[in-house]
Amino acid sequence: MLDVRDLRKEYRGAIAVDGVSFAVPAGGSLAVVGESGSGKTTCARIVTGLEKATSGTVTLHGSVQMVFQDPYQSLDRRQTVRGCLAEVLAHHGRDRSRLGELLDLVGLDRRLGDALPRQLSGGQRQRVAIARALAAEPQLLVLDEAVAALDVSIQAQILNLLVDARAATGVAYLFITHDLSVVRHVCTDVVVMSRGRVVESGPVERVLHEPEHGYTRRLVASVPRPGWVPRRAVNRD
Ligand SMILES: Nc1ncnc2c1ncn2[C@@H]1O[C@H](COP(=O)(O)OP(=O)(O)OP(=O)(O)O)[C@@H](O)[C@H]1O
After folding, report:
1. Among 11, 137, 171, 226, which residue's beta carbon has the most beta carbons within 10 A?
2. What's the whole-model pTM score?
3. What was the ipTM of the complex prediction?
């Protein structure tokens, strides 16, 4: 459904993305992971048409929507949840009666339809952003660090919602994250990027348990295990 071939992006001579290829089948879920600056966001922006590639091809069968890290930035502060979703439904010629179903799909109480973004928690706002993206009934959702700004417990709720939404709608995900620990819940396959290149790719379970590349091994090693406790401050004076 999405086929990215030999993507390259240069910014004034600096190479941000260098020969990147990956594919997402219809209804599939691919994670793109890597440290800050590895070129993930540039790939996502090219896939969604926000950025133009220097060379390479993006073939997409169907429509695409994007969910960003910070929904507070992407939501209109003066628009209620209901107003925001109704606008997208109308724009795409969908029936307004789907509004309630959308709220149910993302686990938002229907009574929150009249709320403004500032009256919602960070997790609730991200639910609205996901509902807004799904309202257009896209074939592909690009999620760029969509849970990075949330507390870990809220992250888990949003990840579960994403799993359920994919099962319910058949939408495919391109899930961009620096955090390998969130990948397992949502994605079946992963592409690992470092310095603009793909260093490893494959099924999530294989890459997490038998990483082949040294960079991937370091990423896996930096993921906190269950029971992990942050080290106390060393200086106790
Ligand atoms: N508009 C731009 N102009 C110049 N350089 C850019 C631009 N956008 C990105 N870059 C550079 O391209 C490289 C890849 O950036 P990109 O944002 O794609 O990485 P990333 O892995 O998504 O990192 P982050 O998670 O920090 O966004 C970086 O070196 C970055 O500085």
Report:
1. 171
2. 0.91
3. 0.91
